């Protein structure tokens, strides 16, 4: 189905001609609305339009150009006019910014294939950045110095959710649609693929390597956690104790113990690295759910409470749980999170412009910034962030961009 969707993206310019034929004037019509909603729903929910912060005609045209390759200027103008009239600029998703001493610098790259939903970039010690295009079935490579990019087409049906690197800087991907985990052999440029041993393990999601080279990963809707030994190819799976916990993010602490966040329940999960026995830690609030987590050098477990708009910390030694309200409130939906340079960084994904928040671990205070996008287009969103060689490496799926964030005082 996704392959059909991607082909529709490529022929959208022809489909948009229907809008011109139905209404040669810029006035909004029910026909225009119906056709636009049909086209937009090919790739994402129509509610994305209704919930947007709106744009001017020029900025709507620019946003569409980030998503699809539309070279017909007349069609772009027609669509931009309709969207600007129907969804004008508004502040209903405005963020609350907290000032502070740090200043940020952003460096952006536009990936070659539009409509792919580029995501989850990770940078190796050699400086190379890898990403996956989930809807484009792509594994991508970026040299940030030269700007050179190369895209590899993954095995049919993979539709990867994430990519991570082993100690040899080999990129490993998680086949979210076909129940696989695999890697790209950098010498032969061929893919090695491992299939899940259980047909119920359908959707490998996010992965991380421990200190011994074992690959741990989550399977969100399958409600499982997996363990893969790359040397033998052996895969073990365990199910979470609470149904529909939706294991999402995963990190490893200094002892090599995996920790998992729950996107469907108010819990964190500690995994025994030897037996795979699971310990569930209940978090406060029935509406709590945690997209991702970060672990500091002293093994404190920080998490984003996406359901309630908070940053949380779990102390594994004492069992104490502490939470702080996000600057933009309970509906800010914090999503990605990372530890870097004495601070916890996370984004408020529901806000426009999307915001980045820095939580200072010493003072326990926050500073936040509205994330700039090219040419005034503030669509998100950051689903994963990781520390690179110089700063945070992020993505924005709606605009198919990767970025590096550095900071200074």
Major sheet size, sense and barrel closure: 4 strands, antiparallel
CATH 4th-level superfamily of the largest domain? YVTN repeat-like/Quinoprotein amine dehydrogenase
Computed structural class: mainly beta
Name the CATH class of the largest domain. Mainly Beta
Terminal residue distance? 48 Å
Counted beta strands:
28
Portion of residues in beta strands equals: 35-45%
- Strands ordered across the widest β-sheet: 1-28-27-26
Mean pLDDT: 89
Helix content: 10-25%
Note poorly predicted spans. 1-28
CATH architecture title of the largest domain: 7 Propeller
Helical segment count: 6
Report on the architecture of this protein.
Residues 1-29 form the signal peptide. It comes from Thalassotalea algicola. Pfam families: Vgb_lyase (PF24684). The chain has helices at 2-10, 12-22, 30-40, 47-50, 57-67, 73-86, and strands at 103-110, 118-123, 129-133, 138-142, 149-153, 160-165, 171-175, 180-184, 191-195, 204-209, 215-219, 224-228, 235-239, 247-252, 258-262, 267-271, 278-282, 290-295, 301-305, 310-314, 321-325, 334-340, 343-348, 355-360, 366-370, 386-387, 392-396, 401-408. By secondary structure, it is mostly beta strands. It has two domains: 2-86; 103-408, 7 Propeller (Methylamine Dehydrogenase, Chain H). The strands form seven sheets. Strands 1-28-27-26 form a four-stranded antiparallel beta sheet, with no helix packed on it. Strands 2-3-4-5 form a four-stranded antiparallel beta sheet, with no helix packed on it. A four-stranded antiparallel beta sheet has the order 6-7-8-9, with no helix packed on it. Strand 8 and strand 9 (191-195) form a beta hairpin. Helix 2 (12-22) packs across helix 6 (73-86). Residues 1-28 have low confidence and may be disordered.
């Amino acid at each position: 189905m996704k392959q059909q969707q991607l082909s529709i993206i490529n022929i959208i310019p022809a489909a948009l001609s229907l809008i011109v034929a139905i209404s040669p004037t810029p006035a909004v019509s029910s026909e225009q609305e119906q056709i636009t909603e049909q086209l937009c729903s090919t790739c994402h929910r129509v509610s994305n339009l209704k919930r947007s912060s709106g744009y001017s005609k020029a900025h709507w045209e620019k946003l569409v150009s980030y998503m699809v390759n539309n070279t017909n200027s007349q069609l772009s103008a027609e669509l931009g006019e309709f969207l600007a009239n129907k969804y004008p600029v508004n502040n209903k998703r405005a963020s609350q910014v907290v000032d502070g001493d740090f200043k940020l610098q952003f460096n952006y790259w536009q990936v070659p294939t539009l409509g792919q939903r580029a995501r989850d970039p990770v940078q190796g010690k050699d400086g190379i950045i890898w990403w996956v295009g989930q809807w484009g079935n792509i594994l991508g490579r970026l040299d940030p110095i030269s700007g050179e990019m190369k895209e590899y087409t993954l095995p049919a049906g993979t539709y990867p959710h994430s990519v991570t690197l082993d100690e040899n800087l080999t990129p490993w991907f998680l086949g979210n649609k076909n129940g696989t985990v695999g890697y790209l052999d950098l010498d032969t440029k061929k893919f090695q693929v491992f299939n899940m041993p259980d047909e119920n393990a359908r959707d490998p999601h996010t992965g991380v390597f421990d200190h011994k080279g074992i690959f741990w990963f989550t399977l969100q809707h399958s409600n499982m956690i997996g363990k893969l030994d790359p040397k033998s190819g052996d895969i073990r799976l365990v199910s979470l104790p609470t149904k529909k916990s939706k294991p999402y993010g995963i990190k490893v602490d200094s002892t090599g113990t995996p920790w998992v966040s729950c996107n469907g329940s108010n819990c964190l999960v500690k995994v025994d690295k030897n037996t795979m026995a699971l310990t569930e830690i209940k978090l406060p609030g029935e509406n709590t759910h945690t997209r991702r987590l970060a672990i500091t050098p002293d093994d404190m477990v920080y998490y984003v409470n996406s359901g309630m708009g908070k940053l949380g910390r779990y102390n594994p030694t004492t069992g104490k749980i502490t939470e702080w309200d996000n600057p933009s409130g309970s509906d800010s939906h914090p999503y990605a999170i990372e530890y870097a340079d004495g601070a916890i960084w996370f984004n408020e994904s529901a806000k426009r412009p999307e915001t980045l928040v820095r939580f200072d671990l010493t003072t326990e205070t926050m500073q936040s910034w509205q994330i700039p996008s090219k040419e005034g287009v503030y669509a998100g969103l950051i689903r994963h962030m990781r520390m690179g060689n110089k700063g945070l490496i992020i993505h924005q799926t709606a605009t198919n961009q990767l970025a590096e964030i550095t900071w200074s005082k």
